[in-house]
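Minutes, project check-in
Item: structure for the 210-residue chain
Input as provided by the requester:
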Amino acid sequence: MDLQILPLAVTMMAGPQIVAAVILVTTTRPVRVSSAFLLGVAVATAVGVAITRGIFALLGDAVSPGRPSDPGAAATIVQLVLVGLLVLIAVRNLVRRESVEPPKWLGSLMEAGPLRALTTGLMVILLMPSDIMVLLTVGANLEQHRAALTAALPFIGATVLIAALPLLVYLVFRHRARSAMPRLREWLNTHSWVVNIASCLLFIVLILAP
C-alpha cells in the first residue's frame, strides 16, 4: 500500500465523525462509551476495506486502476471525477456556511450508552459518503498492488488512533479536558463547515499527489 494512503485516515474522521467522538467524551461514562465507539470504528473500517478490496478483486481488469507505475486512463478519469465532486462539496459548504447545522443525531449522543456508541462508530464509517470514497480508494490501492488485507492494518490503526484522540486527551488531562471538551464540541458544531472544507482539500491534495 502507498504511504500516501495513510493520511486518508484523517479524512475518515473529519466532520461529524470526530464531533461524535468529542461528544461521547462529555457523557457521564466517557471511557466506557468512547471505547465502544472506537470498537465500532475499528470493525467498520476493517469490514469496509475488506468489502472494497473484494469488489475490485471481483471486477478485475474491468475497472483495473492499472499498474502502480502506470495508473492508466480509467484511474485518471476516476481521480478527476472525485476531485470535481470534492470541489463542489467544498464550495457548497463555503456558500452555505451560515446555515450549515450539524446532524440532529449528534445531539442525541449526549445520552448514549455503550450499545448506541458502538452502533454510531459503525454507522459514521459505513454510511458517510466521504468515508465510502476513502474506503474505495484504499480497496483500489490494495488491488492495484495485489496486497493482502493485512497491508491495510496501518490505515485501520491510524483511523482508530485519530478517533481515539478525544478520549486520549481526556485520559491525560482529565480535569482540564472536562472543561475544554464541551467548548470544543460547541466550536465543532458551529464550525462544521470548516472541518468539511479542510477534509475536502486534504483529499484533493492526496488524490492529485504523484
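Outcome recorded: Confidence is low (pLDDT under 50) at residues 64-69.
No further action items on this chain.
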